[in-house]
Each structure stands twice: as structure tokens, then as C-alpha cells.
Amino acid sequence: MSEELLIRRLKAALDVAPADPALRARVISSLPLDRHHARAQRRSWAPAIATGLAIAVVLGLALTNPLRSLPNRHPGNVPLSECQLPVYGYAPYEIDAQTVYEVGFLDASTGKFTRVSSRISPADEARMDRSSPTITYDRAAEAWVPVRSNWVSPDGMSYVYLAGNGIHIRSVWSQSDRVLLAGEPVALLGWSGGLIYYATRVAYASDLWALDAKTGKSRQVVPMQSMSEWWIAGPTAIWGSPYYSGKIERYDTKTHAISAWSTDGLIELVGLDSSGNPIVRRGDRAKPPGEIAVMHGDRSATSLDAADDTFGASDLTVVADGGRIWFSAPGQRLWVYSSDTGLLLLDQSSNRPLPNGLVVAGGCVSKDEVSLQAPATG
User: Fold this and answer.
1) What phi, psi does 188 have (nearest 5°)?
2) What's residue 241's pLDDT?
3) Taking phi first (over 0 means left), then psi (-120 to 50 degrees means alpha), and beta for anything else, what does residue 262 get?
């Protein structure tokens, strides 16, 4: 059977109408006569259209995400003489008050307090522990968030928190919220190496888990161990300690190795410096712990206060700030430590404009950054 005959039979079977002989002529006549000229016109408009689209995209990014369009918006370590320190505390009691806490910036040189709006919702405030609330100034997002600093993601654009037995992740800008883990009670430790770490505890035993925020999948990285506890997540390690010992344990999030550091007497891990070194409060069985020291990878330690009773047994909030470390304690007391200045006390007990229960919420920022904050209302 010839190819032409086969095509005719297929068309008949499919009931295909014969093509209009004049169709090709009509199509050709509808095209520009000078096709080369038509293509040249399209090429001449292409750069203008592309430029317009590029400008629109850039403007859109600038309007919807101004932080990313200004990569140098936040300078590095702000000198202490220019420091505007993020702090918070309890707002004066008022009937029908919309907020329990006040936030703002303390000028470390003059003592002036600039109160700003936190934009933390009443629901988020209610979720915080009233006896020990935690608020962090997220410098990357220029926002106040109702969690401790190591619960904020490395890029500063989201944070994790506990709601009941669930671990949630929330966008700082859009406030979109997603449940990452739900079920049994967990101890949320924070971010390290791009993953979220948490522990589960049974009596005096504890294990350690890593949770991927992108996939929502978690895996156990340290099995359940008796008489142990994991406390805090740092940039490259998770820190914990066996109960009633003079040791701290370090889980390396890159190599997955566990190492133990011995100290003289009992210790309490109170924070980490900017390099991830543990800051501990040391003591012995005969008296409450008081001396604060930074431990180093070579097993040495730098004592920050010569007298054991400088900090005493007070609840401490510790914030790493480049080469500095900030401490706050009840009684409107602030300290700052650096290797250059040693430990300095900034007694704010007579600074009336400051909120009660003063707590440091972040490292130093510049006056320009403070000027971008929304002023407090009411």
C-alpha cells in the first residue's frame, strides 16, 4: 500500500476535513511583508523591555525585602563608646495594658534609654515564662523576637520555639508558622550547623536529636545516657554535663565526637562566647557557685572575676557580642567583659527610665540602627 493511500484512509477513518487550499495563502498574506524588518523591530524593543523588567524586579525586592538590598546595613562590632545596648524588662502595670514588657536601647556611655515598639504579640508574651522571660533583639531582621538568641536561625530570618510538646518554626517577617515536631515533651536546645537540636529526658537520663527544618525529619545523634543532661547549642557544638560532676561534655556537630572537659569543683554552664566557648560558673560543695570563667579548647580557663561573690548565685543572662560578653542580673545590674577592659560593672539601679527587671537582649548596635526602630506608643 502506498504512503499516500494510507494517509487518505486514515483521514477518512478519523473524519478529517480536507484542508482549505487557500489557507496557506491567507496565512502568508497575514504576515509582515518585510519579515527582516519585523524581526529588527522586535530586537530593538528587547533591551528596553529587559531593562524595564530588571528595574521592576530590583524595586520589588527593595520594597518587600529592604534588608537584603542593603548588605552593609549593619556594621560589625560597634565600639563600646558608641554602643546602643538592646535591653528589656517589665512595663509599668496598667489596667488593660497591651504589653507586659518594655524593650529599647540603652546608651552605654550616657545611660539614656530609648524605648521602642517590640511588635511581640500578647499571645507570644503569654507563652513566655513570667518568672524568667526571654526576648532577643534579632539584629539581622531588625526585630524583637520572644525567644533566646540561639533559637534564632543563623540567618536571623526565622526562629524556633516550643508550644506545648511541639517545636514550631516561624518567619520573623511574615509570621508564617509551621510545626516541625509534635509528640512527647522535649528540651529545645537551639540551632547549630544549620540544624535544630533538642533532647528528650527520662528521669536522670537524656539523649540528643538533630532536626532538619527543611524536611522536618529528625535523627538521634546521641543515645539515651544515664545521669547526663544536654543544656545548650552553640555554633559548632552542643554542651551538657553529667549530673553532680565537675565535667562538661561537648558534642561536635561536624565530627559527631563527644569529649569531656574536667574542672575543679561543681559548675553551671551559663552561656557561650562568640567563638562557642562555654562560660561557666564555678564553685564547690561547701558554698554556692559564684566565680565566672570562660573555658577554652586547650582545657584552660579564663576567670572573669577575681572575687567569687561578684555574681553570686543570681540568675544570669549572658550575651556574646564579638570580643565582648554582656551579663545582666536582678537589681538592674549589667556587666561587660573584654580582654582589653576586664570586667566592668554598669550599675543602672538609679536609672529610673529603664524598665524593671532589666535584661540584656543582644549585642551593641549603632545609633543609625536604633533610628530605624518604630517608636513605642502609649
Assistant:
1) -80, 125
2) 86
3) beta
What predicted TM-score, i.e. pTM, was given to this entire model? Answer: 0.77
pLDDT at 349: 86
Report the C-alpha gap between 366 and 374 in whole angstroms: 15
- CA atoms in the 13 A half-sphere facing the CB of 367: 10
At 268, list the grid cell: 553551671
Cα separation, 212 vs 178, whole angstroms: 13
Torsion of the alpha carbons at 174, 176, 181 and 186, rounded to the nearest 10: 60
Contact of 188 with 195, CB cutoff 8 Å: no
Q: What confidence score (pLDDT) does residue 44 get?
A: 47
Task: List the chain domain ranges.
Answer: 3-64, 80-371
DSSP string, 115-182: EE-----HHHHHHS-TTS---EEETTTTEEESS-GGGB-TTSSEEEEEETTEEEEEETTT--EEEEE-
Q: Could you tell me if residue 207 is left (phi over 0), alpha (psi between -120 and 50 degrees) or otherwise beta? A: beta
Which residue in the block uniquely carries the three cell numbers 546608651?
107
pLDDT tens readout for residues 55-103: 444 444 333 343 333 344 555 789 999 999 999 999 887 655 667 899 9
Which amino acid, residue 119? R
Regions of the chain where pLDDT drops below 50: 1-3, 5-44, 49, 54-72
The C-alpha cell at 118 is: 517590640
DSSP β-ladder status, 278-284 and 287-295: antiparallel
**CATH among 1.10.606.20, 2.120.10.30, 2.170.150.70, 3.40.50.620 for 80-371:** 2.120.10.30
* Amino acid at site 302: T
* Positive or negative: CA dihedral 182, 184, 188, 191: negative
**DSSP secondary-structure letter at 81?**
G
Residue 216 identity (one-letter amino acid): G
Distances from the Cα of 187 to the Cαs of 114, 184, 240, 302, in angstroms?
35, 10, 12, 29
